[in-house]
């Protein structure tokens, strides 16, 4: 017969904005919170008996209520608070996963803000009633180097037509996630890790995007001792040099066509040697 | 020091359209192909030495060339062909993952077609030089039942405000993936699995979306002996009954607000008992 | 000094789903309704005095209440009902624009439905207290011909590199809107106009997408005497023949790369001679 | 019979990136260029005769070639250059419309950049062989005030349920376009107009979004004498105060739900008195 395998359920993308007012100076936190719970869920799947189910509507309510009761500091702390609450307060819930996207705003006055449109800060927290795992990260950080990138010496088979190049534009949209060994000063850690990614991308003389990826991951581990593992997904956003010779023009790295699809996709992991096991951190 | 962990690289989203002409009757296959390779990739990450790298541009070329040389039948077969080619022809490549999305077209004449806009058919194939794993699936299959859905008897804690209901609209956008035991008649298997999902959704008197999920997965396993595991992600696309009482109107399941966010998200797996191990199938 | 120019305000994208139950057979209408009102709005702009403003929240409520009170038949009729209500009931509102997108569902049982994913049906209605204007249409109707399309004889200047072709794939995503002379059987008119577009695209031996556009518009006017003007926006979704010669393969219209950007964009209008003036119909 | 009405054709969304190198300091301009031409196009529509057609592929080539030959300064200048070229060099082309979106990058080093993710700068230029019209603008500038916004005193009819409020969050995503009287220092004008929009949003004590809109438009006209007309589309991105009373919590402007749909949409125009006619500027 059939068996129920891994499962979880929750409320995805609760968009909560928390305003804090210190006199005339207001502050905002703008989050997209997704909660997912697991536990004694055989009955609800097999017979529709909801006795073990904390409704997803309740999970949403809890996000809003906790935003009021506890305020929102670092997204990681808010996620941990929620994860612990669900597991510790509900006997049928044994594991919680809370994922948060955070959008940044620039101050334009005491109570006026403009979305900065930079990359989105992310975190995913797991809690199983005893231990917790925290992964922080960012996505949609779009970077481009106009030079210091080569690509040559690759395999040539019967389907290879690509020319070798000693100078190309290298562009990507970084999705990065990094696993913490324990509890950190999340905001400070984030700023350091972000800066490490940006700096490594800018400073690496690149012979391949894989090399750049490894340099970025290593730099995060070097600069952030609290981090034990970095995962990166780097699309190679191709900028093709346009052939202007039909128009009697040369093109010495000046005019590029920014292509959409297909794109290269380089994915990789850099770990601190002897890093503790990841458990469910990446699930 | 630092260690290179799991990694892969490839060309994502190569959009290939293959036309086959039998006299006046033309046929089209419209695919979005993503290839990803792994193998002896330490050097390229650590030093930028590309001697082991089959360029992503070459992978793209191979997709187009194979579309011509071998034609395109079932997406699974085309994916297997590509995966085996990369691993078997390149000594440095030890594993390949090929993912394909397929878009459907309705015939409007001998050589005229209209995109049917139905769900997207998907597959992911892995090959390691000896074995292959095939997962088929679909996404964006949007379903709605106007009745035969209840939700009650769930946990009530201090943050619970949701009313119990004995009649509600149940709507979802199905993402389903299913793992095959071996080689199948992929097209026939797909049609049976798809029909099983649709029928189970329509026929299940639902006490929770989890119950519906399990019923859908079980139906696929029942109707398709070649399939050993089904994974489903079902967003609960909330249709809220609008309170019309301020206008002196009742609303007996007639007028709904289709909400965007947040949404419930129910994820689960149904396995055939004694199913063989999944290996890298879901990676 | 400064002058307030054209303005309007309203509630955009109210997602209303209307269920009608005839015994065991249920029916659904799934709409996205946007209302916009104009009138005596100088004060609200100049001083924030809202005395003339029917709140956008009220407009949304009216959509839901009317869905209950009047049911929903053709989207055009529902739009007219709303437009007339706002203008006729509010002395400060002089003009209304109601735009509706309608999503189609296929029946899968007495009360079970699957989104058909076809193109979206659209309409825009204007009412000024005396007259009304109705524009119907569709968007995202994706069509492709595998042959019967040429492109040659075009201007060649110093920046022209394109080769002439006597056989190419022609693909587009139709956005079409058509203006009615008066009141029609909207559903019947829609089906005829849609069929005219599809048939003209399939049947036209095309020497340019402009020619196809004109043929499509003309066919609508020919088949639908109730329609006086057709506007079409046809992106030329380029399908480039892949050069397979480096691999020793020919490519006689068999393997294409479906490109994203840039794309051609052909926009044009076909009118019935002596068509009445459009008034605000296209605003 | 039928008549060909207004029409135009061109190449949309040519993504050109122009790199300029001054020693070690590189600069980039990142544009999305759409060209559209009109003229003696009866034949191509009626019979497919392309003798008057400058192919859209040629238009794309011209964008790339001009990026090399002339460099890219302000987007408006590049658009004017292209528009004039097409009309002045082709006897069959009588009018050109060139629209450009520009994406901003922050410098991270001599040749390293990060997309700033701020709003997109836009322009639309028309040229008819004699005169030109320039509209500049921006889109996706997301702003939020945490206070100094009220909404009360609006019409109450039988479908009105909204409570009056003396303090709410006001948020919007600005789409603004402004028409120039003649030639400007486009970059300087843009910075002034952008700053005027931001400042007016932050400084206006708002009794309605319409009032804020008018204040924003007026501020642009006040600060930028070179601009004669401003058009604004301001979605009211509702931030609903969450009712926390079921949990025994008050909510004094602290916790909000950021809703997606429906949203208010306020559109309006502010003109300088005696502004010259707009001609085709807004088409």
Would you tell me which CATH topology of the largest domain in chain A applies? Urate Oxidase
Derived structural class of chain A: alpha+beta
**Helix content, binned percent of chain A:** 10-25%
Judging by the overall fold, what is the CATH architecture of the largest domain in chain A? Roll
Order of helices and strands of chain A: EEEHHHEEEEEEHHEEEE
Outline:
With 283 residues, chain A is an alpha+beta fold. Helices cover 24% and strands 40% of the residues of chain A.
Give structural notes:
4 copies of one chain form a homotetramer. Chain A has 283 residues and is an alpha+beta fold. The first copy, chain A, has 2 domains: 14-130, Urate Oxidase; 140-271, Urate Oxidase (Roll). Helix content of chain A is 24%, strand content 40%. Chain A contains 5 helices and 13 strands. An 8-stranded antiparallel sheet of chain A has the order 2-3-4-7-8-9-10-13, covered by helices on one side. A two-stranded antiparallel ribbon of chain A has the order 5-6. In chain A, strand 5 and strand 6 form a beta hairpin. In chain A, helix 2 packs across helix 3 and helix 4 (186-203) runs antiparallel to helix 5 (209-223). The longest helix of chain A has 18 residues, at 186-203. Chain A starts with a strand and ends in an 11-residue tail after the last strand. The relative contact order of chain A is 0.11. The mean pLDDT of chain A is 97. Chains in contact: A-B, A-C, A-D, B-C, B-D, C-D. Strand 2 (14-22) of chain B pairs antiparallel with strand 12 of chain C, so a sheet runs across the interface.
């Amino acid at each position: 017969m059939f068996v129920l395998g891994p499962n979880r359920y929750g409320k995805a993308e609760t968009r909560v904005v928390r305003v804090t007012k210190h006199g005339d100076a207001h502050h905002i936190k703008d989050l997209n919170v997704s909660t997912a719970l697991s536990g004694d869920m055989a009955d609800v799947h097999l017979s529709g008996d909801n006795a073990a189910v904390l409704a997803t509507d309740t999970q949403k309510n809890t996000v809003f209520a906790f935003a009021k009761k506890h305020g929102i500091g670092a997204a990681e702390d808010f996620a941990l608070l929620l994860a612990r609450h669900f597991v510790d307060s509900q006997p049928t819930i044994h594991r919680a996963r809370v994922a948060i996207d955070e959008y940044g705003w620039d101050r334009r006055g005491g109570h006026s803000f403009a979305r900065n449109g930079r990359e989105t800060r992310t975190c995913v927290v797991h809690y199983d009633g005893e231990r917790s795992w925290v992964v922080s990260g960012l996505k949609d950080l779009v970077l481009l180097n106009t030079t210091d990138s080569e690509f040559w010496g690759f395999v040539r088979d019967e389907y290879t037509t690509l020319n070798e190049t000693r100078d190309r534009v290298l562009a990507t949209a970084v999705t990065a996630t990094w696993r913490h060994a324990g509890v950190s000063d999340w905001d400070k850690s984030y700023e350091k890790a972000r800066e490490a990614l940006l700096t490594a991308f800018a400073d690496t003389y690149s012979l391949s995007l894989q090399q750049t990826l490894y340099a970025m991951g290593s730099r995060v581990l070097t600069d952030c001792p609290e981090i034990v593992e970095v995962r990166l997904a780097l699309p190679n956003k191709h900028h093709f040099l346009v052939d202007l010779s039909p128009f009697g023009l040369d093109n010495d790295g000046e005019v590029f066509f920014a292509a959409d699809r297909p794109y290269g996709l380089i994915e990789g992991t850099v770990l601190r040697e002897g890093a503790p096991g990841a458990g469910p951190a990446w699930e």
